[in-house]
C-alpha cells in the first residue's frame, strides 16, 4: 500500500503574513494520496483547499512540516526542480481555464509536450488523443476566444492530461461552468481517471463535483475535519 | 525553440500595440542611418574635394610653414631639395610657394595669400593652365568667393604688394585670367594664384617653395632632409574633426527618436508584465522557470527591434539608396560649414554603418526590454495565478 502513495503530507503548516498579523492557512495537515485516487478537498472559503493544492503542485512551499510528492520533498525543491516536477508529473486545471490566448486549441494542448521535448510526430499523436478524450478533436484550429466556457475547460483538461501525468490538480474546475457542462467535464475527468489511472485532486465547494468524488476531505480552518471515502459516488445522479 | 515561438506568437498577437512600437523604432533606424550617412557623405565629399584640389597624396612642408600662422609665412620658404625636385620632374609632385601680400581692388586694401603654382601641373584639380601667360602681364587665378569679396572679374587688373626674400616691399599689377568655381574654400577665400616661376622671380625666391604636393598615386613618405612630410590623416584631421562635431550635434535627433521608441517599448513591457500575470502563473504551472519567463518577455521586447529592422529594410532601403543616388541639394549657406561641399550632398552608407546601427538599436531594445522583467524574478507562482504581482 505504501508503495502506491503519490502524495504524503506530514504536519503541514502554511502561514501567510497579513500586515502585522499572520494567517494560518494550513494547520498540521497529515494526508496521504494513493495512485488513481479521485479525491476532493472541500470546505468553505479560506479553509486552506487551494493552499494545500498549491503546495502539492509545488507552486508554494510549506512553512513547517513536509509534503512529499512523487518521492520529492516540496520544501527541499529549488525553483527549477519544482518547475521540472510540475512539467513531468503534475497537470493543472484552473477555474478560469488559463489557456494561452495566442495559441489555438492544438497548440495549447501541445505546449506541455514542447517543454518535455517530445518529437513533432509524438506530439501530434498525443495531442489528438487527448483532444479525442475530451471530445474536441474537431476544434484543433480554434482560438480560446472562439470557445465556450465548457469547451475551454475541456481544452484545459486535455492540456493537463496530454503528458499523462501522475497527478492532476483541479482548482474549482466547474466554478465558471453551467450544470450541464460541469457534468460533462467531470465525466471526462472520471473517464481519464478510470482509463489512465491518473490521480485527481480537486479543491472545490461545488456540490456537483463532490457527487463524483470517491474521497472527500473536508478542511475547516486549515485542519482536516473529515476524510470520507465512497465506494459508489453519486455522480450525475438525478441528472441522468 | 519554445520560447522564440511563443514570443513571436505573443508579439504578433498583440496587434496594433506591437506595430506602433515597430513603426516608431523603424523610423529611428532609418533616421539614424540617414543622418549618419549624410555626415559620412559630407566628410567623404569634403575630404575628396580637398584631396583633389589642395592636398594631393600628401605634402612636404618647409619646416617654418604653418598654414594657421600668417606671420610665419615670411620665412616659410626654402630651396626645393633634390629628392622632391626629382618627383616634380617626373610629374609626381608640384611645388607651391606662398607669401603674404596685399591687394588694392577698387580702392580697398585686402590682405591675402599669394600662391605660386606650376601652370602645367596636373597633380591638383586647380585650373592652373589658365596661368600660362603669353604676354608681359602677370596672370592671376582667383576663386569665386575671392572674386565676390574683392569685387573682381575676369580681365580686371589689381595691384599686388608683397615683401621679397630680402625684406623689400614691391608691387605689380596682376590680371585676373580666370575666376574658378570651387567648393574648397582653402584654395579660394583670401588668395590669388600666379605662376610659380613669376612668383619666385618677384619674391627673389629662386627654386624655392613653401610646400610640395605629391600626387595621389605616389607612395612617398621618405625622409627629405629639412622638409616634413604631412600625410592625409594629418592634413584632413581638422575636416574630420569638424564633421565629427557636426554629426554629434545631429545625433541629438536620433537620441530623441531612440528614446521615444525605447519609452514605448519599456511602457509596453511594463504593461505586459502587469496585464499578463495570470499567463505567467500558467506558464509556471506548466513547468516554465522564472528565468524562462524572463527570457520570453525579454525576447518579446527585443523582437520589436528585429521587426523594426525588417520594416526599416522594406521601406528604408529603397529610400536611402534613392537618396544616395540623387543626393541632397545644398543651400548656398553651406559655405558657413567651414569645409568643402558641392551643390549636392551624396550620403554614404557603409555596411558597417547599417550593421552597427542595427546592432546598437537591437542591443538597446534588448536592455530596455529586459529591465522591467527583473520584477518577474521575485514573482511567486501562486500570486501570479491569482493575477497579482509582488
Characterization of this structure:
The complex is a heterodimer of chains A (240) and B (390). Chain A is α/β, with parallel strands linked by helices and 240 residues long. Chain A has one domain (35-62, 77-239): Rossmann fold (3-Layer(aba) Sandwich). Chain A is 33% helix and 29% strand. The mean pLDDT of chain A is 91. Chain B is α+β, with helices and mostly antiparallel strands and 390 residues long. Chain B folds into 2 domains: 2-51 and 239-385, no CATH class; 58-230, no CATH class. Chain B is built from 11 helices and 13 strands. Chain B has helices at 2-13, 16-55, 82-89, 144-150, 196-202, 232-235, 237-275, 277-285, 290-326, 351-373, 381-385, and strands at 58-61, 78-79, 93-103, 110-117, 138-143, 157-163, 169-180, 191-195, 208-209, 211-214, 228-230, 328-329, 344-345. Chain B has a 6-stranded mixed beta barrel. The longest helix of chain B is centred in the first third of the chain and has 40 residues, at 16-55. The chains are: A alpha/beta (240), B alpha+beta (390). The A-B interface holds A 54, 57, 59-60, 79-80, 83-84, 86-88, 92, 94, 96, 98, 100-103, 111-112, 114-115, 159 and B 1-2, 5-6, 9-10, 12-13, 278-279, 281-282, 284-292, 380-382, 385.
